[in-house]
Amino acid sequence: MTNPMMQTFTPAHSRTTRLLRVLLPGILAVLLSACAGFGTRQDPNEFLDAADYDRLKQVSTQPGIRIFRYQVPDLLGSQTLMALLQALLSGLALGGIYALVALGFSITHTTTKTLNFGQGEVLVAGAFAAVGSLLLLAGKPYTAVLEPSDVTIGRYLLALTMTLAVVGLIGVLLYFTAIRPFFGSGGMSWVMSTIGFGIILQNTAMAIWGSSSIAMPSPLGDDVIRIAGAGVRPQEILVIVVTLTVMAGLDYVLRKTKIGKAVRAVATNQQAAALMGINVAAIVVLAFVMSSGLAGLAGLLIAPITTASVFMGLNIALKAFSAAIVGGLSSPRGCIAGGILLGCLEALIGLWRAEMREITLFLLIILVLMIKPEGLFGRKTMEKV
User: Residue 345 contacts by C-beta under 8 Å, 6 or more apart in sequence?
Assistant: First the structure.
């Protein structure tokens, strides 16, 4: 006879999780349908090419010819497909920036179980270090304006080297001033210390360059490149190529080299890694240098697209952190996938309704956290007590 007191029951959170798994596809479908429905264009001329519309106006002035200014949009036509392709290309570039910063979050978290909440300001430092380096190489004062002729490919590569050196030094300073004094002491003191470090970086950049945005020309020019009819700027293609190259290289280093294996060993168990002869302190410093280098690289790549601004770091870092949470903070590949996913979704949703981007993205993040708190590619951690 079964004891009623010993009967198993289903916890409430498990029932909720199963329910959400059933409802999630429908919720996402409703959200996407709402975005498409709310964003339906009302202007009948919007789907007309500008040159075609000018020709139509000229023809309509001839006697006996009457043209109705209305065209039913073909939702699966070439214009829509072209717009989707263009959004995907822009989303890949934007997602690449998110992925670089998210990867930096993952590296520091896996090695020290801490996060740099000033990561966005390190990105700002990278952007302005690039601007300052280019001005220096062009022989101009730091308050001057960059001209397209000042940014050659050679100077851009030199500016990249100088930028990585600057942000790498920032990573070392960050660790020794904002992380190490509080490391292992318990509590969340490092949260405020990293935020404070970021504020110092932001205000230092503001004291030097001011609060106005600074234009940084692309070394590849601004001529639009057509890919299957979709327009994309050369800098966006450069962002995609560099991001994929860096991610592939970093993935190889972390998985196939001795340094990468040492980083993974420290991430798994610092005490065991020390017993194996690994210099844990050096690996932790290297992790912060790599994290800052990724953020600085992202700043250098995105500055020609959005201009360099002391205020651009917070929004990018917030979405990059969201990408890391969605993909899995413990999984570098998950952070990459999360960044690209969020970038593409943001661009695609913006096609229909720009103000729906943030709503849809963060609703998706909340749903993912409710169903899979460790992220889509993350692993559950079991702590011994």
Answer: 91, 360, 361, 364
